[in-house]
Amino acid sequence: MLENITSKQIKEMTLPQLTSLCEEVRQMIISTVYKNGGHLSSNLGAVELIVAMHYVFDFPEDKVIFDVGHQCYTHKLLSGRYDKFNTIRKKGGISGFPKREESEYDCYNTGHAGTSISAALGIAKARDINKQNFNVIAVIGDGSFNNGLVYEAFNSLRLLNTNILVILNDNGMSIAPTVGSIHEYLEVLSASYEHKVKKEKHANIFERFGFAYDGVYDGNDLAVMIKRLAAVKEKLKTQSVILHILSKKGKGYSFCEENPEATHGISIGSSDSVSKEYSEVLGEKLCQLAEKDSRIVAVTAAMTTSLGLGGFFEKYPERSIDVGICEEHATILCAAMATENLKPYYAVYSTFLQRSFDEIAIDICSQNLPVTLCIDRAGISGPDGETHQGVFDLSFLNPIPNLAIAVPKDLKEFEDMLEFSAGYEAPLAIRYPREGKRIFKQHSPIVRGKWEELTVGGGNAVIIACGEQPVTLALAAAEILDKERVAVRVINARFVKPLDTELLKELKEKNIITVEDNMLIGGFGSQINCFFAGDGKIIKNFAYKDCFIPHGGRCELMEDYGVSCKAITDYIKNAVR
Amino acid sequence: MLENITSKQIKEMTLPQLTSLCEEVRQMIISTVYKNGGHLSSNLGAVELIVAMHYVFDFPEDKVIFDVGHQCYTHKLLSGRYDKFNTIRKKGGISGFPKREESEYDCYNTGHAGTSISAALGIAKARDINKQNFNVIAVIGDGSFNNGLVYEAFNSLRLLNTNILVILNDNGMSIAPTVGSIHEYLEVLSASYEHKVKKEKHANIFERFGFAYDGVYDGNDLAVMIKRLAAVKEKLKTQSVILHILSKKGKGYSFCEENPEATHGISIGSSDSVSKEYSEVLGEKLCQLAEKDSRIVAVTAAMTTSLGLGGFFEKYPERSIDVGICEEHATILCAAMATENLKPYYAVYSTFLQRSFDEIAIDICSQNLPVTLCIDRAGISGPDGETHQGVFDLSFLNPIPNLAIAVPKDLKEFEDMLEFSAGYEAPLAIRYPREGKRIFKQHSPIVRGKWEELTVGGGNAVIIACGEQPVTLALAAAEILDKERVAVRVINARFVKPLDTELLKELKEKNIITVEDNMLIGGFGSQINCFFAGDGKIIKNFAYKDCFIPHGGRCELMEDYGVSCKAITDYIKNAVR
Description:
The structure is a homodimer. Chain A is of the alpha/beta class. Chain A folds into three domains: 7-266, 3-Layer(aba) Sandwich (Rossmann fold), CATH 3.40.50.970; 276-436, Thiamin diphosphate (ThDP)-binding fold, Pyr/PP domains (Rossmann fold), CATH 3.40.50; 453-576, Rossmann fold, CATH 3.40.50.920. The first copy, chain A, contains 24 helices and 21 strands. In chain A, the strands form five sheets. In chain A, strands 10-9-11-12-14-13-19 form a seven-stranded mixed sheet, sandwiched between helices. In chain A, α11 (222-235) links the parallel β5 and β6. In chain A, α13 (278-292) runs parallel beside α19, α15 (327-339) runs parallel beside α17 and α20 packs across α24 (565-576). The mean pLDDT of chain A is 93. Chains A and B meet through α6, α7, α8, α9 and α10 of A and α6, α7, α8, α9 and α10 of B.
């Protein structure tokens, strides 16, 4: 019955019909995610909740904002996107996250944690100013609930004098299990539910901020969900409500229920053979370094395993810190620990590092502290789309003084850079993609601000590339051109900052081509342009053009947005001619 | 007795001696701030607290982190900086904020709100790992207490399993009066103090996070402060403590006590005659626009008056939002309101906008929403130093797709840009300095991505400048060179993004010089370099070099860090020759 289902039809269904609808949704999600990749457990856990929401509320007039947005699959299936669901996360298909451009049922795009309550407040406030009348709902997991934005939004609830519904979907997991005092507090609330203790007794924190607290309920019990939501909808007419539900991550699929962290997201292997993930190298190497250097500590924001730090956390629990989804706090902790002679490594996805721009600049770099940022999922990260591409990091890190930025060409070089970092006593960022697909033959020692010549000999065209994929493209182009008797030098720009100015000076007379996995604006190539601005040199940059990059395959997107072997080869053929 | 005072001497003083020490400190602060400018009321309110801290704790072995750091003057006077105190905020003198480079008594540099508890936790955790033994104290005002970082830090207190002291210095003010539910909660605590209600009853929130709560006490009563701090020092051996004190902002100086917002910071007029502050134009013009367009709302993060929005807030209370020091939340609120057909203006200092990088990119720009960022105190802001210079904004905004960036050459042009913004339905940033010092004669209509020719006619050298001071320098250089028969064109680059590519194409054969009030890396000039990278053009950029810019006068710093009339003139003389 899922095919062509409408909001009206859902409202007319009986409970047994709704229950089998849930089953159908669940099967659809499982089969699609195993084909396309995507978020699995979180979506399975939210099926009943979202079906109940569609039964009780009137979308799209009522508005729902999913925090982070990865748990919106059921909502997509119920809002006219069933027939496109098999295209999810594929280039040209629907997104794995809410997208206003895709449907009027998606009112606000999300991707990073903690924004939903702020967004709900903004929409509700606008509704009031516009003298309209609809409900605004934020659905937020307990993982996101750790983020400081939640507190900022709560703090202004009374101030804004508007009504919203916050559904706290508590499954005990961020990606890793949720940590911290807020979550402990939620557990106190849940325990009181289990033991039938009067619920209101514990609701103080939320009530302090102006919410009526309603909970704790079983979020996978459809009948209960419908009843609670209907009651809450009434209450919402006079005040803001927080509805606290417990749900089971991975619900209805025993493999997921038993492995909620591993099945949070399912990744589909790409056509290239993956040799290893960079995160594995980080984990192994950091353990080695920590053996020799007791000052080393590792910090993450709710991403221990996906960043490769599971082993480190096990081996060095006293030197391991996971602060939950609190990227800003994590950054300051690192800076502060560095003032006391520790050597912190903060591992984080490129896209989430965006949250810490201010703290990287002020706390780490203006104090010139030896913190190493290990930036994973840099460059185009692929199927998660606009909100998850790691294509801005070189641009926002470049202008920050005192920071050195290293970009390894392969897994081995990453290992060497980590070895280098152990002896480096100033701010250092190392950025790398998820997958390492090849190990190049050449590996010269890492020296700060020094690049590596990958092809020996002449050639008027010089490709300077940074990062594994760009270096790979550069070498492939050089090989093609070699066959056409165009000699091309390839240089591995291991450091985006500082630049290898000595080597650059030697290249004054050459045709320079830059290749990178970052936005053109503010990226690596633009630094080369600036270096040569006084010389009147012709330079060609291959980098991403000035637009947000949607979801799709990594390689196809790289090509579409400006970085490909063919484009490089064609340019050089014309330029050198 | 303040001169040459040592930590040891303070500890040996009697209460009457300490009381007169407070008086002496207070007089010194008042006389110095009226000479040098700086933070007044906040420092006067914290005198007894800091004297008591020096009496009870052992600095520099014990560590204190001042949140934001603007209230550290007493600490500086008591830690060997009396003789340099008259140089505070002057070029080459001591900083108005804590600086590790300045004294071992400053353990962590601050400048932006909410970082102190995270930093204290990091230092305490490092102490534990290093098996050391000292006390770590964060002193935080109720204004900063609104910031989400506080929640993130609180959330990880138990997790980190370490002990810190948080002194919540509650004076009811941010810069503007503190807003929000957290502050209302603090008022409940204070009221219970006034009425001698048992204090513990209300301490739940802090205890939930693992703090022992101790309060509320009169922070300006020296004897009470000493007694409480001594007790807290004992308690700190076994657990973290939050000490809640009430203090009077501006204490001991009736003018300040009565005008705490106006005397939060004292600004000393510069030698140029200031015609008007840009913030005044913002306030006036936004009121005008709001009259015609009921969709306009104004949002600030605890800076209503200093951003010029006092009048707007009075006239349109229902369309005015001050969320407290919550820059990220404010940014999302704007994005969300824009999805519901409102037209939000978010006014903020350039340096504090750094906190919202992620939300500007994802919430505003990836959704392409018509939010206008009014970025005040852009460029070198002067005496507040490293942590407050607004020199990064062009660099971190430039790579964000969909965002237009406008920079007015004077107050009149700013007004025109605001007029333009009213009809502009996409993300727009307008960045401007604090002071407008002159109105230029020419004012052509504002068109997106179009620049303005300020000198008519020939000349091989073309200066492209953006912003009031850069345009002023460019015109001054042109005038000087004109006398030496070197004709120079000056172009006002009103839009840093998009660039006026049509005009740039016409300049292909010219000597191009760029001038801006931003870092060279990623700034305006670097975009020009990229535009011409394929053409092999010689370009000279005047912008700030790659280092943090300390405190000093705006003009002297501009010159020192790379942007001056003389440098421009000298370059052109040589280049055109």
